[in-house]
Amino acid sequence: MAKEYDVKDLGLADTGRERIQWAAQEMPVLRQIKERFERTKPLAGLKVAACLHVTTETAHLVQTLKAGGAEVRLCASNPLSTQDDVAASLVQHEGIPVFALKGEDKETYYRHLEAVLGEGVQFTLDDGCDLVTLLHQERRELLPSILGGTEETTTGVIRLRAMAAEGVLQYPVIAVNDAHTKHLFDNRYGTGQSTIDAILRATNVLLAGKIIVVAGYGWCGRGVASRARGMGAHVVVTEVDAVKALEAVMDGFPVMPMLEAAQIGDIFITVTGNIGVLRQEHFARMKDGAILCNAGHFNVEIDIPALEGAAREKRWGRPFIEQYQVEGGRSLNLLAEGRLVNLGAAEGHPSAVMDMSFANQALSVEYMLGRNGQLKAGVYPVPEVLDREIARLKLAAMGLQIDTLTPEQERYLASWQAGT
């Protein structure tokens, strides 16, 4: 290949292409955007560095950006999330430089981040803010040429807002995660289904009758709790936010501190975006055979060094399961190295929800490019007009119609004179 890349095996390319084509059936919104991009070329010549989970769905986003005229380089946003056949297909069949290997070590991960930056970049697509952080810490000479960026996930948006609050963020970034057609669907339905899917693939345990502890009741936690209850599990929620805890109670879930939940849980799922959610004091109280997994972006929610320190022995129970033998002869089972379990032990979100998430990405790139120089450094929401257009396209693709306001209703909503 003329272009540089680092993938596992180009011999996997044909299998990857077949899986990418299968995902296309569930991504009609992005397909419509791609068709328009092919005609109008709104991204002509734009140099894009993308740090995303390298999956079949991401392949369609990258193809869409390329159709719009962009030059895209792609690396993985998580060491365990890469689908190697998809990475090979993008290189072999699309000519896109991809730097991603499932199971890559930390050194390789950061080398791949450097590789997508190349000798210059104009736009970043990030999932977790690692690319943006690298640019601001080690590659600042590239910052003047960057027009903007997008961020896919909650954790990344939190980091970006912290950068903006400190006045260090040097270019505008759209928080794709916060679009209604992203977080209300991707975070809730996508994370909910894919997390349960990953636990079942990794363990083959029966969820019915199990006590599942969900740490965090944001949109992702809501989705996980709902799907776990649907499988017949008894779900307990832990929270640090009083409002979210109250929501969980009103939704019918018991709420308690993690120290209390640790004694009764069979399966623990962290989905908070914070550090040290499961710690040594919790491990010391857990049942023999407890299963621990994380559905947050970074592998910091479960204190793995503390688990390692408490272990008298460690072995692989089966693929994606590390069994830690701890005090009292108990066994604690960690899934996917404590990384994003839905991508580490399964395939991530269903294509149908990623269709909307990546439609937000594609349209946000077009929107920012059309306003080059008008947006100051900072974190911006997805424009409501784009959010609503994506919802409209999704409904149309599903063959559904909705009502429209009558002129009288529009006048009523725009007035203030009418009373009781």
Automatic annotation (TrEMBL):
<keyword id="KW-0963">Cytoplasm</keyword>
<dbReference type="GO" id="GO:0004013">
    <property type="term" value="F:adenosylhomocysteinase activity"/>
</dbReference>
<feature type="domain" description="S-adenosyl-L-homocysteine hydrolase NAD binding">
    <location>
        <begin position="187"/>
        <end position="348"/>
    </location>
</feature>
<feature type="binding site">
    <location>
        <position position="182"/>
    </location>
    <ligand>
        <name>substrate</name>
    </ligand>
</feature>
<dbReference type="Pfam" id="PF00670">
    <property type="entry name" value="AdoHcyase_NAD"/>
</dbReference>
<feature type="binding site">
    <location>
        <position position="152"/>
    </location>
    <ligand>
        <name>substrate</name>
    </ligand>
</feature>
<keyword id="KW-0520">NAD</keyword>
<dbReference type="InterPro" id="IPR042172">
    <property type="entry name" value="Adenosylhomocyst_ase-like_sf"/>
</dbReference>
<dbReference type="GO" id="GO:0033353">
    <property type="term" value="P:S-adenosylmethionine cycle"/>
</dbReference>
<keyword id="KW-0378">Hydrolase</keyword>
<comment type="function">
    <text>May play a key role in the regulation of the intracellular concentration of adenosylhomocysteine.</text>
</comment>
<feature type="binding site">
    <location>
        <position position="186"/>
    </location>
    <ligand>
        <name>substrate</name>
    </ligand>
</feature>
<protein>
    <recommendedName>
        <fullName>Adenosylhomocysteinase</fullName>
        <ecNumber>3.13.2.1</ecNumber>
    </recommendedName>
</protein>
<dbReference type="InterPro" id="IPR020082">
    <property type="entry name" value="S-Ado-L-homoCys_hydrolase_CS"/>
</dbReference>
<dbReference type="InterPro" id="IPR000043">
    <property type="entry name" value="Adenosylhomocysteinase-like"/>
</dbReference>
<feature type="binding site">
    <location>
        <position position="187"/>
    </location>
    <ligand>
        <name>NAD(+)</name>
    </ligand>
</feature>
<dbReference type="GO" id="GO:0006730">
    <property type="term" value="P:one-carbon metabolic process"/>
</dbReference>
<keyword id="KW-0554">One-carbon metabolism</keyword>
<feature type="binding site">
    <location>
        <begin position="216"/>
        <end position="221"/>
    </location>
    <ligand>
        <name>NAD(+)</name>
    </ligand>
</feature>
<feature type="binding site">
    <location>
        <position position="55"/>
    </location>
    <ligand>
        <name>substrate</name>
    </ligand>
</feature>
<dbReference type="GO" id="GO:0005829">
    <property type="term" value="C:cytosol"/>
</dbReference>
<dbReference type="InterPro" id="IPR015878">
    <property type="entry name" value="Ado_hCys_hydrolase_NAD-bd"/>
</dbReference>
<dbReference type="InterPro" id="IPR036291">
    <property type="entry name" value="NAD(P)-bd_dom_sf"/>
</dbReference>
<dbReference type="GO" id="GO:0071269">
    <property type="term" value="P:L-homocysteine biosynthetic process"/>
</dbReference>
<feature type="binding site">
    <location>
        <begin position="218"/>
        <end position="223"/>
    </location>
    <ligand>
        <name>NAD(+)</name>
    </ligand>
</feature>
<dbReference type="Pfam" id="PF05221">
    <property type="entry name" value="AdoHcyase"/>
</dbReference>
<comment type="similarity">
    <text>Belongs to the adenosylhomocysteinase family.</text>
</comment>
<feature type="binding site">
    <location>
        <position position="127"/>
    </location>
    <ligand>
        <name>substrate</name>
    </ligand>
</feature>
<comment type="pathway">
    <text>Amino-acid biosynthesis; L-homocysteine biosynthesis; L-homocysteine from S-adenosyl-L-homocysteine: step 1/1.</text>
</comment>
<feature type="binding site">
    <location>
        <begin position="295"/>
        <end position="297"/>
    </location>
    <ligand>
        <name>NAD(+)</name>
    </ligand>
</feature>
<feature type="binding site">
    <location>
        <position position="274"/>
    </location>
    <ligand>
        <name>NAD(+)</name>
    </ligand>
</feature>
<feature type="binding site">
    <location>
        <begin position="153"/>
        <end position="155"/>
    </location>
    <ligand>
        <name>NAD(+)</name>
    </ligand>
</feature>
<feature type="binding site">
    <location>
        <position position="349"/>
    </location>
    <ligand>
        <name>NAD(+)</name>
    </ligand>
</feature>
<feature type="binding site">
    <location>
        <position position="239"/>
    </location>
    <ligand>
        <name>NAD(+)</name>
    </ligand>
</feature>
<feature type="binding site">
    <location>
        <position position="342"/>
    </location>
    <ligand>
        <name>NAD(+)</name>
    </ligand>
</feature>
